[in-house]
Amino acid sequence: MIKLLFYSLIFLIVAVYIALIAKEDPGYALLSHGDWSIEGTMVLLIGVLSTIIASILLLVFLIVKTIKFPSQISHWNQNRKTLKALKNCNQGYIELAEGNWREAENHLRKSAHTSGMPILNYLAAARAAQEGGAQQRRDDYLLQAHKSDPQADIAIGLTQAELQIKDGQAEQALATLMHLRTLAPKHQQVLKMLFRVYQQLNSWQDLEKLLPELRKNNIFSYQELSQYEQALSKRLMLQALQNKNQGELNLIWQRLPKATRTEPEMIQFYCQLLLSLGDHDQVLELIREGLKHHWDAALILLYGQVKEPDVAKQLEKAESWLSDNGRSAELLLTLGRLSIYNQLWGKARDYISESIVVAPSTEAYQLLGKLYENQLDDSVEAMNCYREGLLLNTKVEAIKLNEELPLMLSC
Q: pLDDT, tens digit, for every residue of 172-209?
């Protein structure tokens, strides 16, 4: 439009200039060739020549337009189809987000060829098909996605594995991910999804082999990986316990990082398994070593529940902790229990009573009640202890209920 105005302005200026010249002197022009000649004013000659040139240019313009017309029609038609496809594609994604699976699938399928991004359409259509319960159509769309862009194996494979996992097809997802792993061994998303599949399949040995790669490629944070490692180790330990294989159980423990082997929770778990196999000596040694790194109430209580052959030495060791770690309720209760093992009834009563003063517990009341009933022959005090223990247990249950009730009501 600007060019047309520019050319029109130039033409107008030239025309005005010629008109001004012609007014002063129209000039004289003679054209001759052989026996014929044309005679007239210069202005008229210029006007005629301009008309002829303009006519020729107009004719050429019309011829060019006529030649280009079919391609322009085709281009316009293609643009119209593309716009329609984009509209269908957009509508398909909207319906996919709204959960209208069948409508989304239809719109995405129809617009795949002309949208300019068929692979995205087919992958989205595969999701819609699965949500609609059509696994065969889902697989067909994934195949079409691969045909539309054979170089996008990783993206297509990850989508396929994700849909298979969501559909409960863990074994098929594993096969898909193992293929992807050959294509991209260090791909973070492939390794992360492989981790999920091994969990679903309870394939703990494979998961244990995968952990070093997860750590090496920084797939999870250090804290997350440590939690996963501990949970996996517990699974493997339980499996070894079911097989009554203490050698394998000990080997799993030794494979853990040193920092993990000093965690009180892991020590307690491992000790409980060893106790079920009757290995009391190793349990006591583990508890003593663990308490050197972390003073833990649960380990203190567990120490009092395991009896070593020399119970006097065991009590002496526990009493040595009083000066370094204070008179905690757990340590006092453990000392009371160890005093019972040593048949020191008065000492046991004093330790357990002090534990109750520091922090009352149902376990302490029960143990003190049994001491009064069986060794001190005081049924009245025994009944008082049992009653206090029941009342305390009722209070604890009531507090738990009050804490859980708002959560239950919110659900």
A: 999 999 999 988 888 889 999 999 999 888 888 888 88
Mean pLDDT, residues 64-90 = 60
Residue pLDDT, tens place only, 39-54: 666 666 666 666 777 6
Contact in structure between 376 and 349 (CB atoms under 8 Å): yes
DSSP secondary structure string for all residues of 235-286: HHHHHHHHTT-HHHHHHHHHHS-HHHHT-HHHHHHHHHHHHHTT-HHHHHHH
- Can you say how many angstroms the Cα of residue 85 is from the centroid of all Cα atoms in its chain? 32
- In CATH, which of 1.20.58, 1.10.287, 2.60.120, 1.25.40 is domain 77-151? 1.25.40
How far is Cα 368 from Cα 336, in angstroms, rounded to an integer? Answer: 9
The span from the CA of 125 to the CA of 137, in Å, is 9
Options 1.20.120.420, 3.40.50.2000, 3.40.50.1980, 1.25.40.10; CATH for 332-411 is 1.25.40.10
pTM of the model: 0.62
Dihedral through CA 275, CA 279, CA 280, CA 284, nearest 10? -100
